[in-house]
Amino acid sequence: MRNEVIRDFVVQVNADPESILSSMGIGVTHRTLDQTPSEHQYFSKEYWTEIYGALFFQQSLDAREHDADVTTLVMRQRHGNEDRDIFRSRFVVATRNGLVAQLTKRKCIDLGAMSPSMTPPIVHRDAEIAKRLDAIAFPGMTANFDAAKTAALALTMLDWREFGQACATEMIAASQALARALEAEGVPVFAGAKGFTNSHQFAVLAEPFGGGQAASKKLRQNGFLACGIGLPVAMVDGDMNGLRIGTPELVRRGMTTADMAPLAALIARALRGEPVGDEVASWRRGFKKLCFVH
To answer: Partners of 239 in the beta sheet?
Structure first.
């Protein structure tokens, strides 16, 4: 069909992109983040982590990692050189995802890795669309002022007005119970002067699991969602040193403090590399009712 790509071609490219590019006269170079240490000064692993965190809208962790990787590789290969002209910039990634282009640009500027007027590492194929998306991405989405969220927020506030106190109490109790249960399972939980937590979330010391983002990927493969976070403890090279875990959605789905011990056992096994995805899915099916809502 006009303006569409034939499905067989997409399958072929996905299976062997290098051969397709070679047939078009485009050379392929294999690069990894560990290569050419002399270039790391131009865009550090810490900057990679910042880019990864900025791409919060990506549901796929693989997609977030890919976009953070290509941003890092482009900036490193530029060796700190900047130019307004996209061709004189030498290294650039073209994308049809305008939001990725704008968020990576803004984060690179915030990090001091590039000047606002220079060519960013990822550019949108349509400059006019990119300009419009820039206005949408900030402050619209990233500053949380998107008008499309208003109706959902209004309903949430109605639920919160009636059930908020009870829900908050249960979230905090569940958070404290889960933190204690994880500690009992041998998972080190970060603690302050007042204990593990007095809120709906807490943090695990992630160094034993390779770092916060590495730990979150292990959990994601087994049906859990969490994320890396920075803690005032020793750094983890190339990753965050904490893993943040929250209980709002658990409580909304009907879990109580009585469920935190078996949940902690599953999380601990997943963090240690044991595949528990099927068990998690089976257990999750028992929680079918939304709580603290009209």
So the answer is: 236
pTM of the model as a whole: 0.54
pLDDT tens digits, residue range 11-50?
A: 777 777 777 777 767 777 778 888 888 999 999 988 999 8
Rg (CA), the chain: 22
Three-state DSSP state, 173: helix
Query: What is the DSSP annotation of 73-135?
Result: HHHHHTTT---SSTTTT---EEES-HHHHHHHHHHHHHTTSS-TTSPPSEEES-HHHHHHHHH
Angle, helices 98-110 vs 45-54, to 10°: value is: 130
Could you write out the DSSP letters of every residue in 183-243? HHTT--B--BTTBS-SSSEEEEE-GGGT-HHHHHHHHHTTT---EEE--SS--BTTB-SEE
Domain ranges of the chain: 31-141, 149-284
Residue 76: CB partners within 8 Å, gap ≥ 6? 36, 39, 40, 42, 43
Q: Which fold has domain 149-284?
A: Aspartate Aminotransferase, domain 1 (3.90.1150)
